[in-house]
Design brief:
Elements lengths: L2 E10 L4 E8 L5 E8 L3 E6 L5 E9 L4 E5 L2 E3 L7 H13 L2 E12 L8 E11 L11 E7 H10 L5 H16 L4
Parallel strand pairs: 4-9
Antiparallel strand pairs: 1-2, 2-3, 4-7, 5-6, 5-10, 8-9
Helix pairs in contact: 2-3
């Protein structure tokens, strides 16, 4: 374990806070750790009864490119229930609601510099509706065959980490349920 000696906020924004900590390492040496505090998030793998996945495509400014992703979003308030966040984000981004949600665990997205945790859900029993994305989100909904999306994750065509993790966990959940 590393022991924190001091901690200073070096940036506080709308979404993120960045800290610079001075720490003592396990071997007794001193070091600096800069890290991002993130409120947490959810990502949903929405699968239709006929084996299609509802995906979203959106431009991601930090990488200056569009990505094909599963719907996702951050917690609106500290302590928000991940399932309630998942329900809200699925409907906001895609317009779909789901009859059932299966928790697929969580992932640490970038533990080398952030505490972000994303909770993953499989959503089934989907009903289409009208999406209502945040005003700063320009999202295009895409519907693709689940097996094809799995192959895109394996081939590297899909590079978004939460999407790869969510799709692969859903794939193995379906195998466990003998649906594949």
């Amino acid at each position: 374990m590393e022991k924190t000696i001091s901690s200073k906020v070096i940036f506080s924004g709308v979404l993120l806070t960045v800290l610079r900590d001075e720490v003592v390492l396990e071997n007794g040496a001193m070091s600096t750790r800069e890290h991002v505090l993130h409120p947490g998030a959810v990502a949903i793998v929405p699968v239709t009864d006929d084996g299609k996945v509802i995906l979203v495509e959106q431009y991601r400014y930090p990488i200056k490119s569009k990505l094909l992703e599963i719907p996702a979003g951050k917690f609106d308030k500290p302590g928000e229930d991940p399932l309630e966040c998942a329900k809200r984000e699925l409907e906001e981004e895609t317009g779909y609601t789901a009859k059932s949600y299966t928790y697929l665990g969580y992932i640490h997205t970038t533990p080398g510099f952030s505490n972000e945790v994303i909770h993953l859900y499989l959503a089934q029993g989907l009903t289409p509706g009208d999406s209502n994305p945040d005003e700063d989100e320009i999202i295009e909904t895409k519907i693709e065959d689940f097996e094809h999306v799995v192959q895109k994750c394996i081939s590297g065509e899909i590079t978004d980490a939460k999407t790869v993790a969510g799709i692969m966990r859903a794939y193995f959940k379906f195998k466990e349920m003998k649906k594949i």
